[in-house]
Amino acid sequence: MIAFLVRRVLLVVPTLFVIGSLTFFLVRLAPGGPFQSEKDVPKAALEQMQRAYGLDRPLGEQYVRFLSHAAVGDFGPSYKYPQRQVRDIIAEGFAVSAELGGWALLLAVLIGVPLGVVAAVKQNRFADHAAMAFALAGVSIPNFVLGPALVLVFSLGLYWLPPALWTGPSSRVLPVLTLAAAYVAYIARLTRAGMLEVLGADFVRTARAKGLAERTVVVRHALRLGVLPVVSYLGPAAARILMGSIVVEQIFAIPGLGRQLVNAAFSRDYTLVLGIVLFYASFLLVLNLVVDVLYTRLDPRVELS
Amino acid sequence: MTAQSRSHARPGVRLAAALVLALAAAACAPERDARDARDARWFGSIRPPAANVLRFNNGTEPETTDPSVMSGQPDGMIARILFEGLTEYDPQTLLPVPGQAYRWETSADGLTYTFHLRPNLVWSDGSPLTAHDFVWSWRRVLSPSTASRAAALMYPIVNAEAFNKGTLADSTRLGLAAPDDSTFVVTLRAPTPWLLFLTSYYTFVPVPRACIEKHGARWTEPGKIVNNGAFSLVSHRQNAKYVFAKNPKYWAASEVKLDGIEAYCVDDLNTSTNLYKAGVIDWNPSGYIPSPFLPYVRGFADYTTGEFQATYFYGVNCTRPPFDDPRVRRALNMAIDREAIARDLLKGTRRAWGRLTPSGYPGYDGPPHVPFAPDSARAELARAGFPGGRGFPKFTILFNTSEDHRRIAEAVQAMWKRELNVPVELQNMEWASFQQASTTLRYDVARRSWIGDYLDPSTFLTLLTTGNGNNRSGWSDPEYDRLLRESEREVDPVKRAALLRTAEARALASSPFLPIYHYSTHELIKPYVKGIFHTALDVHPLSRVWIDRDWRQHEPIASGARR
């Protein structure tokens, strides 16, 4: 177990190195630069800005400097927002994205898992069809349709909830619902499939034969294994959902990390793009590791090696 | 599923369907069932905010809060809330009214301006604000190490250009002086009739020396920043909002009726308009209503429109054959049916426009517009060696990715094909790539637009001078440059306007730019917000804005009778 963890952590370093280096050169291949503007930037000002950011140095030197600073998590100031440090922008944006994603993920699990269990237990009956129809709708309606539809009804029609912004508890409702919908649906389907497989297994028949109540069989015995596909899905899903949804953040004008990354790429904010990409990569790697460890806790058949 | 079980499901389905319909109906007719029938005249909620605060969308996140460095509309709005220059804009006409200076004199030759500051001016931290602060702040803008993007606006000042470009190191030779604490003297290298517009401009506001020297680049953060305008910065959250509170130290604090301002940073046009309709913001400024939506909101009483001093045009790359031939450019110019674009495509939300400078410059009557003259266009093209469009090489209209730009490019493409029989293709690029292509002259024809900085035609006409960084067409005409230089030295406003008019006529005849339309502003202002008006530069001083909770009593009687 310890050896496994050490090896996995050691693997993170070269992975991040490759991702960081690729991003460093790819972002510079894109035409245009961070100081370009519709209005002409005076030559003297442009040179001054480039000097201030070390952009006048040879690319190799810039690369080495980037690596040595990135190693300690320092990406310097943003190019687009010169008064702000990349580190602060990431911290601020991630706090918001993680809160939005956290609520959405919680909602998705709380609704999706029971829905899947009900569908499996009542297989091919009305409850199953209803739950799966709901899941199908959730997966197929894209969030850029669902979000505005919810806004149209609850904000512009009924005036119940704010149509956007990230200000009070009421402003959380619509973006969380929008973001959660697809995950609810997917988790319900995964749970149903997992449960169906487990409900037919020998140990469930044994549990039933012992005369346990159906409720106990389902919740105490079957669910523990039936939910495994959901657990393995949750790792990457959590990484994606916590890092921020570009679409939902845009529709609801939420100051999250997803919107920052897109804007940074469009404005060629090299330091900010690199910072967010590396942060995202490390976050993903760590979460995958957590899922692997969690797996052994849930399924005694899995061993870490 | 059997027929039996399906019929069981029906009541539930029906209930759900009824619910969905009810919600949809509510969504479609939000105000119709409101008790007051007059509500239907307004777009969405008309409930004033709980606090005495103006809430509006400031659009894209500003890049910086430092007025000396910034360039851009959202940045400028924040600067004008926090700082005040020697003069201030009149909220309707934008003509200069006294700001930090209460009076000023101009010398007879128009080269020396003497400003007298109000007595007892203070910064928000209580320290005195003197003429020396202005000298220091303007010098900071011009200092090469500040890397100000708007420094060129100060070039009319003696030695400013040389100092900014680094060829003159001695800052004491700038035409700036403070003979005493309350007198600020500016010496110009040429008469600059628009100087008193510039003194209202954000680049020209005083910035707090002590605060900047103490905190460096982070001086504009909440808690650190010191300012001299009507409101002070309370908090700022990137991509979310700026919160301002009334500055009790402002010289006219007793005239400031708002307790504060909340400026949101919402870049999505649909979201911005939704926020306005739901009553979360009280003002949706120009540029934040989706253009397909304009014909619809036009019918509401809280919609305001007017001319905006900006023009939309196509730049032609004059360094690439066959576009180096003015006859070809003229042919393209005369084959654009601007009226059709404005009428059919833009549904009358903007005016067709056939010259470079927009309308509304005091004392300036521009040259006649480029006509839509397909026959003359074909004749010009034939003279250039392409009769009937034969042998004309395939070329491209370049635009930055946007549905609005695409529709116009498609229309122009069709017109050029129809009238001139030339092969035109369209190409879109995302913003940064587009900027790169247009600044480095890697295009044939490119979408451009320009917004005036101040109320004078020179803010447009200097674009086309040789070597101007915003020219981006490769066009160079020594006679045009000479006319503009001469206009800079001309003190008589009538003679000056005539010089500029001749220059613009020359440019239109040579057609490096193909004008298309005149911009308009389109904004939504709640009926209880008083003091925000349409202005020609879309600049809005907010210090005297107020929330009128009894706005219905102040409505004209006639509208009440409409019930």
TrEMBL record, chain A:
<dbReference type="GO" id="GO:0071916">
    <property type="term" value="F:dipeptide transmembrane transporter activity"/>
</dbReference>
<comment type="similarity">
    <text>Belongs to the binding-protein-dependent transport system permease family.</text>
</comment>
<feature type="transmembrane region" description="Helical">
    <location>
        <begin position="173"/>
        <end position="191"/>
    </location>
</feature>
<feature type="transmembrane region" description="Helical">
    <location>
        <begin position="9"/>
        <end position="30"/>
    </location>
</feature>
<dbReference type="Pfam" id="PF19300">
    <property type="entry name" value="BPD_transp_1_N"/>
</dbReference>
<dbReference type="InterPro" id="IPR045621">
    <property type="entry name" value="BPD_transp_1_N"/>
</dbReference>
<feature type="transmembrane region" description="Helical">
    <location>
        <begin position="133"/>
        <end position="161"/>
    </location>
</feature>
<dbReference type="Pfam" id="PF00528">
    <property type="entry name" value="BPD_transp_1"/>
</dbReference>
<dbReference type="GO" id="GO:0005886">
    <property type="term" value="C:plasma membrane"/>
</dbReference>
<dbReference type="InterPro" id="IPR035906">
    <property type="entry name" value="MetI-like_sf"/>
</dbReference>
<dbReference type="InterPro" id="IPR000515">
    <property type="entry name" value="MetI-like"/>
</dbReference>
<feature type="transmembrane region" description="Helical">
    <location>
        <begin position="270"/>
        <end position="291"/>
    </location>
</feature>
<keyword id="KW-1003">Cell membrane</keyword>
<keyword id="KW-0812">Transmembrane</keyword>
<keyword id="KW-0813">Transport</keyword>
<feature type="transmembrane region" description="Helical">
    <location>
        <begin position="100"/>
        <end position="121"/>
    </location>
</feature>
<keyword id="KW-0472">Membrane</keyword>
<keyword id="KW-1133">Transmembrane helix</keyword>
<feature type="domain" description="ABC transmembrane type-1">
    <location>
        <begin position="94"/>
        <end position="295"/>
    </location>
</feature>
<protein>
    <submittedName>
        <fullName>ABC transporter permease</fullName>
    </submittedName>
</protein>
From TrEMBL, chain B:
<protein>
    <submittedName>
        <fullName>Peptide ABC transporter substrate-binding protein</fullName>
    </submittedName>
</protein>
<dbReference type="GO" id="GO:0043190">
    <property type="term" value="C:ATP-binding cassette (ABC) transporter complex"/>
</dbReference>
<dbReference type="GO" id="GO:0015833">
    <property type="term" value="P:peptide transport"/>
</dbReference>
<feature type="signal peptide">
    <location>
        <begin position="1"/>
        <end position="29"/>
    </location>
</feature>
<feature type="domain" description="Solute-binding protein family 5">
    <location>
        <begin position="96"/>
        <end position="471"/>
    </location>
</feature>
<keyword id="KW-0732">Signal</keyword>
<dbReference type="GO" id="GO:1904680">
    <property type="term" value="F:peptide transmembrane transporter activity"/>
</dbReference>
<dbReference type="InterPro" id="IPR030678">
    <property type="entry name" value="Peptide/Ni-bd"/>
</dbReference>
<comment type="similarity">
    <text>Belongs to the bacterial solute-binding protein 5 family.</text>
</comment>
<dbReference type="InterPro" id="IPR039424">
    <property type="entry name" value="SBP_5"/>
</dbReference>
<dbReference type="GO" id="GO:0030313">
    <property type="term" value="C:cell envelope"/>
</dbReference>
<keyword id="KW-0813">Transport</keyword>
<dbReference type="Pfam" id="PF00496">
    <property type="entry name" value="SBP_bac_5"/>
</dbReference>
<dbReference type="InterPro" id="IPR000914">
    <property type="entry name" value="SBP_5_dom"/>
</dbReference>
<dbReference type="GO" id="GO:0042597">
    <property type="term" value="C:periplasmic space"/>
</dbReference>
